[in-house]
């Protein structure tokens, strides 16, 4: 979603550091059903065993049909967004906050984090000008990747933002104008050859980066679950979708030419477009259908491995009541899962979902209900061997970073019900994957086993 960097963030970030805590790495998908305060000691006592488990199971996640796989078994995305990890890791006192949020996420069994691999010409920029990088900031990203592995968490790394925060396509176009290009709007990002060259150079820089901590090239690192072309790409200057589609096809091919192994997604919000006019009525509003995106057509591009969808009923349906929001969210998910099953033949990940508590209508109880609905809908697909492959909540924060709260922040140590819901969902997924033998396609035995973990009464 679009991000708003609060005024004075520079000063605030420098003041909210904490000491770097020492905790053991966590096995992927390992959930601990204890309070977060006690979890650290328990993790510390299991350091050696867990390190061995992480090393043994740390293979590359792939795709088989409409599901993710790891070592021949299904892999389900149960994750979160925390976009600012690289920025915090640039300042030594704040590195502890990176560790804190990864620690807390792993303690409830979350296994994938989506965080930015970009910051263009802003404060603490990674890319200062086209092709010129701040090595200190790059080393901060190295730290994020290495810490993620230590906690058994994989990463989805987007290459650029659609929005102006952290630079985005507007900054690329600004660079082009400064170089003398005749560019008329920010959407020229998708079509101008020079600007596309800037983007490709950044992609190559990220993919071929050798981590200064692990000595592993990013394109070879299983810690990275997937690359993402852009955070929420839109091209409203061309509602036909042709311009954005051509860009997706070109850039997907380029990424795969350098890294054919890692998974790749687009990062779109899931709006339907002209290729499926009968589905455009399912969009949350008229404007979303004019954004230049096209869910079905976009994901038919060669090189795209899974579909991405976002869910923000509170901002998309501002004047509707809570029940309408919940009904829309379920229908939105079911339609996209059905499309991924029948039309795309690929997994679908709901890469962002959340509710802003800045609106008094949305209580903590409503947030709990909303999260439960997302997980219940996904489990229904999982039960049938469907394309519903996972979700990532927007967004997790550790204590001491509330000044950056955009209204959607969830602090697990202060949200026991959310922690319980996430942990329970992790346990359900972990139990499904652990059962032997695993058969493709799903057997009746596996479906019956899953019934034990989908009772509404457990929440």
TrEMBL record:
<protein>
    <recommendedName>
        <fullName>mannan endo-1,4-beta-mannosidase</fullName>
        <ecNumber>3.2.1.78</ecNumber>
    </recommendedName>
</protein>
<comment type="similarity">
    <text>Belongs to the glycosyl hydrolase 5 (cellulase A) family.</text>
</comment>
<keyword id="KW-0378">Hydrolase</keyword>
<dbReference type="GO" id="GO:0016985">
    <property type="term" value="F:mannan endo-1,4-beta-mannosidase activity"/>
</dbReference>
<dbReference type="GO" id="GO:0000272">
    <property type="term" value="P:polysaccharide catabolic process"/>
</dbReference>
<keyword id="KW-0326">Glycosidase</keyword>
<feature type="domain" description="Glycoside hydrolase family 5">
    <location>
        <begin position="61"/>
        <end position="394"/>
    </location>
</feature>
<dbReference type="InterPro" id="IPR017853">
    <property type="entry name" value="GH"/>
</dbReference>
<dbReference type="InterPro" id="IPR001547">
    <property type="entry name" value="Glyco_hydro_5"/>
</dbReference>
<dbReference type="Pfam" id="PF26410">
    <property type="entry name" value="GH5_mannosidase"/>
</dbReference>
<dbReference type="InterPro" id="IPR045053">
    <property type="entry name" value="MAN-like"/>
</dbReference>
